[in-house]
Amino acid sequence: MRLPSTESLPIRLAPEIWALYLCDNSANDKGGGKLMAQWNSRSHKFLPIIQRYGFAVVSIILALLPGLLLQHYKFHDVELPLLLFAIALTAWHAGVGPAVLSVALSSLCFDYFFAPPLFNFSITPADIPTILVLICFAVLIIRFSAIRHRIESQLLQARDNLQAEVVERTQQASLLNLTHDTIFVRDMSDVITYWNRGAEELYGWAPYEAIGKRSRDLLRTVFTTPSDDISAELLETGRWEGELRHGKADGTEVVVASRWSLRRNENNQPVAILETNNDITDRKRREEEIRSLNSELEKRSTDLEASNRELEAFAYSVSHDLRAPLRHMVGYAELLQKNSSATLDDKGSRYMRMILEAAKRMGNLIDDLLAFSRIGRVETQKTQVNLEHLVKEALSEVRQETNGRNIVWRIDTLPVCYGDRSMLKLVLVNLLSNAVKFTRPQPKAEIEVGCVDGNKDEVVVFVRDNGAGFDMKYVDKLFGVFQRLHHVDAFEGTGIGLATVQRIIHRHGGKVRAEGAVDQGATFYFSVPKI
Amino acid sequence: MERLGRILMVEDDSKDVELTLTALEDYNLANEVVVTRDGEEALDYLYCRGKFSTRSCDNPAVILLDLKLPKVDGLEVLKQVKSDENLKFIPVVVLTSSKEEKDLVTSYQLGVNAYVVKPVDFHQFVNAIKELGAFWAVINVPPPGSVNK
């Protein structure tokens, strides 16, 4: 899962990312770099002062020599352009001072070598226009030179700035490759123009494989919203975000949370789309799993409710419909016994008794079964329960079964626990009446109710007797419904009592267990929460 | 017995009717028992309509009402009786096989006077019926307008 703050980052930083992307591209532009280098090599540097003036002298001399040579061969009026060229060269390259010097030298040379009277420094009014031409020319050239220098220095400044910016942005651009997010750029005809390392890692195509391809063809994009709507939103707001499905180089599919931002040129025409994608395949899969688990759970819970209702209807039907014919059986059998006792022989009377006993037993079974099923259906109402009081109440209920018996009761001090009073009472009644029942063969029965030192969270109560006991190898069967370890003839019962005990204790989050040996008595333990 | 109230028994099961009447006979209570076999018939009797339109319109001293009945069930009969100005004083004893707490609670909410679960054991059943009959038809003084023998 990504943090929300980082998720919103690409959108917030979109303009910066655009800047990064652009300079990343310009950094790759080798042509631009060469241009810079050329500028650098042509950079103007002022020559040292002596050289500059020397340049003026030498250039004038170099102009003078061919002038004199040509004059010697009777080519006239060539000297002035040559001198002007020398002055221009000096003014252009050596600056104002040397230009003044070259104008002065040119004037002198012209006056001395070419203006009549020759080889004489006397200045005639006829020479003045020539000298003025030289001066004006020099001024003009100096002016151009100055303009050139200014422009050149501005260009240099701009170039330095640009270079610094390029360096800085090239560093930043490499950050785009550092991010785990998948970032690529495509132009308005969907052709990929930039492809970062995140994109390479997610989709499996290297930049040289991806750049130049149409993104929809390469990525086999499946839109969850109509692409026309996306385009409309993108053009209107400059952004779009949503889910897309893309194919990877290895043929598998990936679900991405995609964010698009639109780049416009200075004329506000859309030129490119920057797409930032996050792989949410795992998240989608987990969401899908959770959804399916939820619906499964819902279905199960509906099924459970339905089967609970069925169970309730069944219990109702059992309690009502099954008991009625039983009651009739018993009723008519009793009437028969009562009205026809004179005509029934011993055998007949016995059969009648057996019918009645069987019916009674069935009635008990139904009642116990219903009580057992009710434990699962009713809500527990938990309160603080004083176990000692509860044992006394339970004891008074089973007391009628103990008539004429020699039973030694030992009830220890018992703590308070937390549970459903009536259910816990049923537990104690069941355990005590079991103890009473299974000690019946003993001439002197001993029944003890006590408390084991449990942990601080639960109370462990035991009921111990010296009765018939049981074989420990059948201990697993003890708490099962309808499981009995003794014949009905020996000890009556329905085999539901201990199952009820276990069910109640389990509903309290406690445990039951039993220890015993044949004819050595049995001890039943149950634990209930203290608080 | 100086005074014996009329008992209206609402019971669809003929065997239950027979056994109940047998039990009541022991106390000579059976003569004034009117048996109706479903909720609708019971209401017809109470409102003196249908086949009971000719009877003198006195209320019974007690209604022994089973809950599971054809057509109109026992709880519905109980509801109508207890919401009717003329009938609401008639003591109603629900006599049913159902030990369901839901039935018990609903019955008392509707204002039942007693709720008896029919014991499977015939002796207990007979005793229960006898005591019921004796109490409601003999010992209890019924509200005015009830039929006395």
From TrEMBL, chain B:
User: Locate the Response regulatory domain: which residues?
Assistant: 6-133
**Biological process per Gene Ontology, one example term:** phosphorelay signal transduction system
Residues carrying 4-aspartylphosphate: 66
* Entry-linked Gene3D superfamilies: 3.40.50.2300
Q: Which UniProt keywords apply?
A: Phosphoprotein
Q: Which InterPro entries match?
A: CheY-like_superfamily, Sig_transdc_resp-reg_receiver, TCS_response_regulator
Q: Which Pfam families match?
A: Response_reg
Is Transmembrane helix tagged as a keyword?
A: no
Q: Which SMART domains match?
A: REC
Can you name this protein?
CheY-like chemotaxis protein
Q: Which organism is it from?
A: Tunturiibacter lichenicola
